[in-house]
Amino acid sequence: MAPVSDRTSPSPVNPPQYHLVQKGDTLYSIAWRYGVDYKELSVRNGISKGYVIYPGQKIYLDTRNLNVTSKSPSVKKPSPATSQTSVAKTPPRTVTKPSAAQATYAHFTWQWPARGRIIRNYSPKSGLNKGIDIEGRLGEPVLSAAPGTVVYSGDGLRGYGKLLIIKHNETFLSAYAHNHQLLVKEGESVKGNQKIAEIGSSGTDTTKLHFEIRREGKPVDPLLYLPKR
Length: 229
Prior knowledge:
Elements: E1 18-20, H1 27-34, H2 38-44, E2 58-60, E3 104-105, E4 108-109, E5 118-120, E6 132-135, E7 141-143, E8 148-154, E9 162-167, E10 172-182, E11 189-190, E12 195-199, E13 208-215, E14 218-220
Antiparallel strand pairs: 1-2, 3-4, 5-6, 6-13, 7-12, 8-9, 8-11, 9-10, 10-12, 10-13, 13-14
């Protein structure tokens, strides 16, 4: 048998005009699939704040020239002295590299989601790795990188295997892919450093955790946010 290749987060060169909602989809998972901001997607499709969608619904994907007014207030500068557990208000769109060892964004601090070494770095230009891959053994714990709410728990996104997506605030989402077992459900609140899954090899041929952070729908290098180790 041919080996299973890991084509995490594939992005079509010419994305389709719309996505037809399938059972298990959420607005967040659709936005993640196509690399767009879920807030812009909701405005484009007239979806209210609860973000309820239904199978067979067409979600139009072109969010250019939208006037999304729910932009966020300014974020506090990174400070290693302030580490709280409440979910943050929305930071601004501009990404700046944290100067502190631990990057604190308005009331939450990023933490490592697994203990292993990095075996693949962020490389967005290749289109094949929009996060980092962390080495692990089958069944080792996957930890939430910050407090938030689970907005996707399933295996419906090709290339991610068993996947969790956590919303931390109106700007930041994180994802945990290729899990062996998912331990939290959609709508569940989680704390930072909480065990949410177990490392596996679903959707790939290597036992590892694939971890991503997205800001306003766009992938960013997790190493700019995670504490140095």
